UniProtKB/TrEMBL annotation:
CDD domains to which the protein is assigned, alphabetical: HAMP (cd06225)
Coiled-coil regions, chain positions: 488-599
Identification of the protein by name: HAMP domain
Species of provenance: Raineya orbicola
Lineage of origin: Bacteria, Pseudomonadati, Bacteroidota, Cytophagia, Cytophagales
SMART domains tied to this protein: GAF (SM00065), HAMP (SM00304)
Amino acid sequence: MAKENLITRIQSLNLQVKLLIFLGIVLVLSIINYALVNYEEVNLANSTSGIEVAQRNEVIAQKFGFLAFSVFQGNESYKKELEIAINEHQYNLDLLENGGTVEILNKRVPVSPVTGKTRSKLNEIKQLWGTYRENLLAVLTQSTEVTQIDSVLAAGQVTYTVKRVPNQARRQAMAFVQDNTISLFTQNSELGDLLWEDFYTIKNRNSTQIALIFLGYISLFVFVYWQFSVNVVVPIRKIAKAIRSIASGDFSVRLHFKQKDELGILAEDINGLSDSLRKATEFATAIGNHEFDVELKAKNEQDKLVVALTRMRDSLKTIDDESEKRTWANTGIALFNDILRKQYPSFEEFAYAITYNLVQYLNVNQMGFYSLFEERGKKYLKLEACYAYDRRRFEEEIIDLEDGLLAQAVLEKAVINLTEVPENYIRITSGLGDAPPRNLLIVPLMDQKEIYGAIEIASFQKLKDYEIEFVKKIAESTATTIAAIRINQETERLYKEATEYAQRMQAQEEEMRQNVEELASTQEVLQRREKETAEAYQKLAEEYERKMAEMTSKERMLSEQKSQLQASLDISQENYKKLEKQYEEVRAAFEKLKNKEASMAFAIQEKDKEIITLRKTVDELRKGGTTG
C-alpha cells in the first residue's frame, strides 16, 4: 500500500519536479562524491606530507652519526649543521604528532597528526629520541676535556693537582649516539612504512568509494531512463499518434494517462482540443445548413477558435440577413418598377397605386401621397392619395409650405423619421378607439434635387433602416416618374401650342401673301409718285435757280441804282421812297420764294421718309412670308 501510494505520488508530480528531484539526487551524489574524494585527497595529501616528513627524519637520522662524530672529533664547522638537524628532527616529530604545515617544493602543505599504529610507532621514536637528543646535545655543547683536580694526602698534607683530562660524559654520549643511530634510523624508516600503508589504505578506500558512487550513478541513470521511457517517451508517442489522428480529421481519439504531470495535462488538453474541434466541426456543419441559432461556448477568453467561429457565424448570419434584405428590397423595387411603368387614367390613380402597394409591402398602418404645386409664386402640397386602416380614404388637404413636418421635409429636402409622433398629428383614426400610430416617416419625392412632393407613412412598429432606405429609393423612382409625367404633359402642351401656332402662322401667311400683293401694287404707285415727285422737284429746283438768278440780278441792279441815287443826291425823296418800296417788295418776294423753297424741300423729305418706311415694311413682309 505504501509503495502504491509512493508511486501515485510520484506520478502526480510534474516533469519539472521530477527533473528537479533527479537533478537533486545527482547533485547530492555529486556533493557526497566531491566531499569524499576531497576528504580522501586531503587525507592522501596529508599522508604524503607525513611520508615526506618521515623520510626527512630518516635522512636526518642517517646524518646524526656522522655529524656527531665530526663534532666529537673537534670539527667545529659541523656544530651548526648538527644543531639544525636536531631542531629539524624535533620539528618533524612535532608535526607528525600534532599536525601543522611543512614546506614541500616551495609550497606550504598541511600535515595531519598520525593515528593508530603510526601513533604508537611515533611514541616509540619519541622515547628513543628524547635520550638520543640529550646525548647529541651533550656531544654538541660539552667540551672535549674537562679540568680535573686530584688531591693527594701525604705527610698530613693535601696536595692538589689540576690537569685537563678527556670528558668522559661526552665520550659516553658519543658512544650512545653511535650505538642508537641505526636504531633511530630504523624506527624512522618503520614510521615511514606505516605512513605508506596508511597512504595506500586511503587510496584504496577512495577508489572503492568512487566505484560505489559510479555504480550509484549508473543505477540512477538506468532508473531514470526506465522512468523516462515509461513516463515520457511512451506517453509522447501516444500523444503524437493522437495528434496525427486529430490532424487527419479523426476527433474521436481519447488519451487516458494516470500520471498528472505535464504530459498528463497535455493529454487532457489534447482530449479537450479533440472535443473542441469536434464541436467546432458540428458548429460549422450547422452553419453550413443555415442554422445560425446554434451556440458554441468558449472555454475562456483566449479560445480564439470559438471566438473566430462565433464571429464567422455572426458574419454569415449578417450576410444572410443582408441577402434577405436585398432580396426583399430587389423584389419590392421590381414590383414598383412594374407599377411605375403602367399607364393610369389620372395622376390620382397613379398616386393611389403607389400608396396602396407601399402600405401593403411595408405592412404599415397608413400613408399619404402629396404633390408639390406652385401658383402665383406660392408653393403648397396637395394630398393626391391616402390609404389607412385597410381602405382607401378620399381626403382633401392643402398644406402651405410655412410650417409643419411635411413642409420642413420638403423645404429641407431631408427625411424625417420620428418614433414619437406629436399629439393630434395623426388625423385619420380607426373609429374603434384604437391608439394612433406612434411612428412617422416623411420622405420627400426628389429627383436630382428637384422636389415633386412627399410621402408620409405612419406605423405602429418602428421602420427598420433597410426599410427606410427602400422607401427612399421608391420615393426617388416615383419622383423620376413624376418628372417624366410632367415632362410628357409639358411636351403635349407644347405640341398643342405648336400646332395652334402653326395654324395661326398659316393663316397669317395667307394674310401676308395678300398684303404682299397689295404692297406690290402700292409699291408701283409709290414708285410712280416718287418719279413724279422727283420730276416736280427737278422743275422746282430749276425754277428756283432761275428765279434766284433773276432776283439776285435785280437786287444787284437795285442796289447799284440806290447807290447811284444816294450818291448823286439829285434824285428826289419821292423817287427814293418809290425805289425803296420796290426794293422791299423785291426783297419780300425773294424771302417768300426762299420760304417756298424750304417748304418744298421739307415736303420732299417727308415723302422720302414715307417711301423708305414703306420699303422697309414691304421687305419685312416679304421676309415674314418667306419664313412662314
